[in-house]
Amino acid sequence: MKWFSPYYFFLLVCISPFTWLAAQETLPHFKVKDLGKQGVQVAWLNPFKNCQQLSVQRSTDSIQFKTILHAQTPNMYDNGFVDKAPIERPLFYRIYYVLDGGKFYFSSIQSIQPNQVNNLSSASTWKPSSYVFCNGKGTPTILLPAARKHLYRLVFKEENSTTIFEINAIKDVETYLDKANFVHTGWFLFDLYEDGQLKEQGKILIQKDAASR
């Protein structure tokens, strides 16, 4: 992991075993489907026979998640349920699971968008990125599993498309950013390039730390 702060030109590298494992292991074949008034169908395939706990978590902002289900048979391969979810959209889901020995992981985030608009084709249609996001503590995070195979460049911009700062040649799988880089709280756009080609456009919400509210 890497902490990046271009304002102070300071790099802080700190590797956490659990965070590293979470970056390497994700629950495959996790999907959600909007059933309208009936709720949201959440389904998964779990290849881990030594799974001791599996929980489904839901969020309305992709930042603060709440556990809505503890699977009674967490090591069952094929499982799912229908969440009697609130009617507001968007909704975001992820799976948290624990294996023998205490190792724990989070799946990628899946979303239910208004009118089933799930593709981010413009800045006004938002889907949380699996590459650039704020983690559970609200820290801006860059997660690039293929960072050692490709050349990545990231550009952050204001909502009016004014560039705030750029990060060139990202070589770490996981990088943490200092919120001070963004100058203020609110929404910021980003362009992620892989080997010189635009890989993803999106936006990220920077919020105040809880202690400063």
Taking the alpha carbons of the first and last residues, their distance comes to 28 Å
Q: Identify the overall geometry.
A: globular
Query: Nearest-angstrom radius of gyration?
Result: 18 Å
What share of the residues does DSSP label as strand, in percent?
Answer: over 45%
Work out the number of β strands. 17
The ordered H/E elements are: EEHEEEEEEEEEEEEEEE
What do you see in this structure?
The model is unreliable at 7-26 and 116-125 (pLDDT under 50). A five-stranded mixed β-sheet has the order 2-1-15-12-11, with no helix packed on it. Strands 5, 6, 8, 9 and 10 form a five-stranded antiparallel β-sheet that branches. A four-stranded antiparallel β-sheet has the order 14-13-16-17, with no helix packed on it. The protein is 4% helix and 46% strand. 22% of the residues are buried. It contains one helix and 17 strands.
